[in-house]
Amino acid sequence: MRRIEADISRRQMLGGMSAVVGMFAGFGLAPNEARAQGADRPILLTNLNYFDGHTLSLHRGADILIEDGRISAFLSTGQGPEDVEHIDCGGRTVIPGLIDTHWHTTLAAISQIAAMTQDIGFVHLMAGKEAGATLMRGFTTVRDVGGPAFGLQAAIDRGVTVGPRIFPAGAIISQTSGHGDFRLQNSLPMMPVDQADYATKAGVSTIADGVPDVLRRTREQLMKGASQIKITAGGGVASQYDPLESLQFTEDEMRAAVDAASDWGTYVCAHVYTSPGIRRCIAAGVKSIEHGQLADEDTVRMMADTGTWWSIQPFLADEDANRYSDPKAIAAQKEVAEGTKRAFDWADKHQVNWAFGTDILYGGGESQGRQLVKLAHFMSPLAALHRSTGAAGDLLALSGGRAPYEGRLGVIAEGALADLLVIDGDPETSLDWLSDTGNLRLIMKGGRIFKNNL
After folding, report:
1. Ordered structural domains, the chain, with CATH
2. Hey, CA dihedral for 130, 132, 135, 136, is it positive or negative?
3. pTM of this prediction?
C-alpha cells in the first residue's frame, strides 16, 4: 500500500484522506486535537521522578529529552537546551505508556450478539471509538490476539483516528468445534460448497483442520500483516460448545502454525487453560501461553525451563469480570478464578517470563485500568507496573521483524519510543490512581501529546 500511495498525487491523497476523516467524524471518531512539538522542536520534561519499566524503584534528578518521537537523552536537572518545549511535571512521576498484551480491539466495545450479527462497518466504527478511549486510559500499546484489527491499526498509524499502537494477530485460528468456531449447530455439517460463516468472512476467526489447512490459514494472516499468530489450543469460558478441559489441535497441527510463523520471523501464541494443553503447546514450539490459570506446578516449571512466555489476566470472577448467563460458562469462570492467584504465585516462584493482559470482551473496556490495579493484590505496585510496561515490551519484541513499530516499547530508556504518562499518584505505594483517568495528567505516544492537564 505504501508503494501504491507513493504514486498518487498529493492532491488525490489529501482528498481521499479528507473523505475518510469526514466519515469517521460523522460517528464522533474524528482525530482528537492533539498538541505536538514541531518537527524541529524537541520536548524536555522537567521536575519529575520516573519509573523505567524494569527497575523496581523510581529514578530522580534527571530531565527527559524527547526528539523525533523517541527518548533521546537524560539530562541533569536544569542543564537542558533552551530551544525546546519545556513541560514542568510538577514533581510528579513519569511512567512508560501501559501495554495490554491480551486485547481484542474489535470485540471490546460491543456485545457478543452485535459482534456476530451487525454490519461489519458498525463493528469497526465502534472499535475506532473504543481505541480512542483505550489511549485515554493510558494504554499506548495493545497486542490484539484475535479479530480484524488491521484496518483500525492503519487508520491510527496514519493519524486518521486516535488510538494505541496495535500488534495484530488477525483471525483466531481454530479447529472445528474449537474456541474460535462461532458457527451455530444448525450450520453443520460444513460441505465443500458452503460459503464461509460470518466470523470467518469478517476476519474474527478462521477454521482449520489438518496440517495443510493450518499452514494456509496461518500464511493468510501473515499476508495481511499479522505481527504474531493466535491459535486456540483448548476450551474456553466464553465458547458455547467446547469443554474447558478439551485439547484442540494435534501437536503436528500446532507445529505447522509455528513453522509458518517462524519462517516469517515471528511466533505463535495459544489460548489454553490446562496443563495437558500447555504441555502440547510447548512441545510444538508455541512461544506464549494465553491464560493458563489451570496449570499445575510442574507445567509452570516447564514453562520457565523452556523460556515460554505467559500472558496472565486477573480473572477473579468479580464485578469487573466478563458477564455470562450460561451456567456452564459461569462454572468455568469460577474454576479459572480459583486458579488465578495460584498462577501468579507460581509464575513468581519459578521466574516465568510473564506479562499483563486483560481479555476484556463485550462492553467492559472501561475496567481496563482497574484490571491492572488488581495485580497489586498479588505483588508490589511497581512489580505489577513492570508486568504492564517493561515485561510486556519484552513479550512484544518476540515479533522480531514482523513488529509494526521500530523501537523499544514499555521502557523509559535512551532510544526507546516516547510513549509516556505523567501521573498523579505514587506507584511505589499503590496503583489505585489508575482507577480514575483524571490522574493521568499527560499522555504521550511517539512524542505526540494526546492529553495535557498539567
Report:
1. 35-96+411-452 (2.30.40.10), 99-402 (3.20.20.140)
2. negative
3. 0.91
